[in-house]
Amino acid sequence: MRRILAALVAAAAVVTTAPQAAAAPADRVVTDYQDPVQALPPVSRPPTPSCTVTAMKHTFANSYGQPYVGTLAPPAQCAGPWTKVVLSWTASSKGRQYDRLAGLWIGGAEVLRTSTPEPDPSGITWHFDRDITEFSPLLHRAQPFVVDLGNVVNQTYTGPYDVEVTVTYYQADRAHPAPEQADTVLPLAADAGQPGWQALPDGKNYTAQVTVPANTAKLTAQVYARGGGCEEFWWSNVPTELAKAYPQAGLCGGGTYREVGVRVDGRPAGVVAPYSVIYTGGVAPMLWRPISAIDAIVTLPYTIDLSPFLGTLTDGRPHTVELVPPHGIVDSWTLGGNLFATTDPGVRRVTGTAPSTEVPEAEVRVGTTGTGLDTSIATHVARSWHTSALLHTSRGLVPVRASGQWTFDNTTKLADSASKQNTDQHVVGSYGSMGKVDGFDFSLRADVTQKIVDDNNYRIDASVHMGRRLWTVGGGRPALSEDTIDTSGGFGRTNGVLTYADGRSHEQWTGLDDVGRWYSKRINTEHGYVV
């Protein structure tokens, strides 16, 4: 189903739109829509003196294998220390174009991952901010500045992406001091002047060599992960044997469970449960016009505490850190990330015991009912892992522990020879790290109905519910957010003419903003515009 759907979306992009009268009375043909919007809270700006630097103004046209490479240096009049550093991304596009994945690196550290909305003929512009204060240790000197956004412009896909990136440095003062945070950033990228991500198939890992400061007392890994091709829709994939048995259905294999792992010197150090992000052309493009799916534009990384491994990592020698894509995938996952080290000025070297690790392979339970392409597939995983050690620091003997636990449940139903597919997925759990707990609750429901005669006669209707609830307790300021999107719509052609392209949606974000204030926003849209 997914490969067929992608082909039809591509074909629909080049069809000349019929007059409104050509559509059925209940249908609309929406070809222009409002600039993309989201309900996320804005990044706060402190009231201190600041300086803004334009880091990049660049057009990404035929840009596969041709990243932007420049230099970012702090302005002399805002040399720091900084209470906050904010990166702003503003982009526009006009014409026809697929959604494209993009990444941004400073000094080899992946600072941002995003993807693009799909433009309309009259053009769209979108903007978002990213708090990059945690990368301050890299920002005090000139660094390579790299942006990768692979794009194709030709007679069919006519939309280049014009992107401007600025960085604003806010000076610290007594009322707004520099935050307490990691003092060393260790990029996993091998070359700071090139994109630091890797597209990895099943069985191939992202391998990096890092040398950790000898007096590191805390070490965390920050991981970015996105699936491509069939792996964009991993949450709706079916068992590989079913996909192979019915190739005409265009189903994607590999099942529905995914996790991304981290290894240190070959030993499992932890795993994370990725969010089921949907690109802005995913399922049906009008679902995401103008509200983009959760995590599509502002992508959040995943964090694993590697402190239990410091007893072996602080010997001054290079050590291996690996990012491991999900097992059994049928297309690639694009992985990248960084390490953040907090050092102890009271000792020359932090030592410790060898880590105790309990990171078993996931036990994935799959049950099916029905036969052939009229079947229901239920997948359940109860996941748990932990690592621990004792560290010798200036505060004496300190126990450290990292953990993760979650339950994963996905039921995917095929009906009418796979012309109908329903997916209901729920993942809930938490990560623990030295008194801090980061909880998460992910929900996804998708209904897709396809009526396909051929490339010139078809109709696709879909509805999607997405939810992401995050909370943090312990280890500093508490955090809480809940983001939900409900959207429906579809598209279709009759005798080669686009006769249906419409959607409606609403998004609700509620929680604490980045300074702990309560924030709530709701957006309703119909026919591509906020109402």
TrEMBL record:
Highest taxon above the source species: Bacteria
Where the record annotates domain Peptide N-acetyl-beta-D-glucosaminyl asparaginase amidase A N-terminal, the positions are: 48-353
> In its keyword annotation, does this UniProt entry include Lipid biosynthesis?
no
Q: Report the leader peptide range.
A: 1-23
InterPro entries xref list: PNGase_A (IPR021102), PNGaseA_N (IPR056948)
- What UniProt keywords are attached to this protein's entry? Signal
Q: What is this protein called?
A: Peptide N-acetyl-beta-D-glucosaminyl asparaginase amidase A N-terminal domain-containing protein
Organism for this UniProt entry: Kutzneria viridogrisea
